[in-house]
User: What shape does this take?
Amino acid sequence: MDNSNQSLEESVQTNSSKASWPLIAFIIFVVIAIGLAWQFTGNKADLVIVDKPTPATQPIIEPVIEKEVIVSEPVIEEPELVIVEKRIEPTESPLPSLNESDDWLKLKLPEITWRKELLTLVVDDDMVRRFVVFTDNFSQGIIAYEHSPFVLPKVKFTPKTDRVNFHAVTQEQGTSPDVIQGSMQGKQNVWQWDESSSKRFSLYIDLLRSMDSDSLVQWYADIKPLIDEAYKELGYEDDFTRTLQDAITRVLDMELPKSSMALIQPSVTYKFANPTLEALPDTDKLLLRLGKENLLVIKSVLLELHEKLAQQKNGVH
Assistant: This one.
């Protein structure tokens, strides 16, 4: 009996515990729900609204944000740059008048030679006119000593002191003794040519050799207006360059005689014993007196000068 009662009580407790657990869980859920509702909604039945005094409206001060002020520089409109191509000509001092050209030429002459000490050989009076007149006469075979652009040599010409056999000279030159004797006016003293006498022209040759041909032609072009003016004073209308080329050609065409140049002295001055040589133009006889070596140097310099003058005249550079 006791055992049956005990079993019944345990069965009741087991059933009771099974029935009460869902109820307890439901009650817990309800309590949690009410708590949540109160938290979010509050107790509306007991809510009392109390009017509070409205606070005085204060101005809303907005924060001032300092903005960076960008000051733009004034825009300056620059004028449009127009590039105009212009040929710049070298500025040169204008030529002086013909009458006042000597001082100007004295400054220009040292530019065309490195032997400036030899410029003392140049006559510095009325230089342009001297050059024009002397060249014009030279082209015609005439020596105008009074218009020479150079001072005359101070050393006088002297032949060799020993006399030459009169008949030997006539046979060497193939000339009749009667012809030579007639030209000697009865005098039969014949002097031998002294080659060393040509050394008195060596300084003039050195001056010519020291001049650069390009510089000389350019210098000639620079003073050409003055030369043309002086040439027109002589009554010419053609180009002076042609006259200058004729004078140079006369030098280039000069040939030295193969025979010795024996001399006679019928008066103060000496003459060539050979009448053929004595009949030559004064320019040719002057070239003979220069001597063989000097003449070859002059020909070499003038040949180059002659070619460059021709190129300049024809516009060839």
